[in-house]
């Protein structure tokens, strides 16, 4: 299905289809998130730390969670265990190596377009007691015109029979603005933002994707 312009992707249709966006984070990150009024990419968090010792994190796979100290605060960023470098090298395009792809991922804030997609990610970390933040899609997209969409879980390199056993391709075109995203709104898995995502509208929090969501006080 396409709209009257011939495009598959339509923002209004996406907002109707996916009225909420979801983000998983360490519960200890919440005070800083609310203080900044933003979700920050790994690269932005490292930049704010002012500590060059963290810079290598941007271009390497994280096998464990990392703690980034910003002044007297600590921000936790998640591991990248779902990425298999053996598989990653099979699917990179545009002449990229693994380091370039990690840098590309770490420059983004990630949200899931529906709880079903979030749930597998959540199950990996359920034992750690993370929190799920839920946002109104229309408010987030209005405040963040630099949004880009992705049709796959960019941080999990599962083999695919459609690509001769390799994962789906990844490279410069993995994340696309609505104007060039050549898939339907229903095919969006990740909603991403370079550098940061400004938080506007109500913010809801839950202990699980399908749990009870409580609105946070402003």
What labels would you give this structure?
single chain; 218 residues; alpha+beta; 4-stranded antiparallel sheet; 3-stranded antiparallel sheet; 11 strands
Describe this structure in words.
With 218 residues, the protein is α+β, with helices and mostly antiparallel strands. The chain has one domain. The chain is 26% helix and 22% strand. The protein has helices at residues 11-17, 30-36, 42-49, 85-91, 98-106, 115-125, 137-143; strands spanning 20-25, 38-40, 66-70, 73-77, 108-112, 131-136, 147-150, 190-194, 196-198, 203-206, 214-215. The strands form 4 sheets. The protein has a 4-stranded antiparallel sheet. The chain is globular and about 45 Å long.
Question: What's the total number of strands?
Answer: 11
The gross shape turns out to be globular
Helix residue percentage? 25-40%
Class by SSE composition: alpha+beta
What number of structural domains do the residues give? 1
Distance between the termini: 40 Å
Strand order of the largest sheet: 1-6-10-11
Radius of gyration: 17 Å
Organism: Mucilaginibacter ginsenosidivorans
Pfam families: DUF7002
Protein name: DUF4433 domain-containing protein
InterPro entries: DUF7002 (IPR054271)
What is the strand and helix layout of this fold?
Elements: H1 11-17, E1 20-25, H2 30-36, E2 38-40, H3 42-49, E3 66-70, E4 73-77, H4 85-91, H5 98-106, E5 108-112, H6 115-125, E6 131-136, H7 137-143, E7 147-150, E8 190-194, E9 196-198, E10 203-206, E11 214-215
Gist of the model:
Pfam families: DUF7002 (PF22531). By secondary structure, the chain is of the alpha+beta class.
């Amino acid at each position: 299905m396409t709209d009257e312009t011939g495009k598959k992707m339509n923002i209004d249709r996406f907002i109707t289809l996916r009225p909420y966006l979801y983000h998983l984070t360490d519960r200890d990150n919440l005070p800083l998130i609310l203080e900044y009024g933003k979700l920050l990419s790994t690269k932005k968090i490292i930049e704010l730390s002012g500590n060059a010792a963290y810079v290598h994190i941007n271009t390497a796979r994280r096998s464990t969670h990392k703690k980034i100290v910003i002044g007297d605060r600590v921000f936790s960023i998640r591991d990248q265990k779902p990425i298999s470098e053996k598989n990653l090298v099979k699917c990179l395009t545009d002449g990229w190596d693994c380091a370039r792809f990690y840098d590309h991922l770490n420059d983004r804030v990630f949200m899931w377009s529906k709880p079903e997609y979030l749930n597998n990610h959540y199950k990996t970390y359920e034992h750690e007691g993370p929190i799920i933040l839920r946002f109104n899609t229309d408010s987030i997209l209005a405040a963040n015109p630099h949004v880009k969409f992705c049709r796959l879980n960019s941080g999990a390199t599962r083999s695919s029979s459609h690509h001769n056993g390799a994962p789906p391709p990844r490279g410069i075109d993995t994340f696309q603005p609505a104007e060039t995203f050549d898939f339907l709104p229903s095919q969006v898995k990740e909603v991403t933002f370079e550098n940061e995502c400004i938080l506007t509208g109500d913010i809801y929090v839950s202990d699980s994707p399908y749990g009870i969501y409580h609105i946070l006080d402003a």
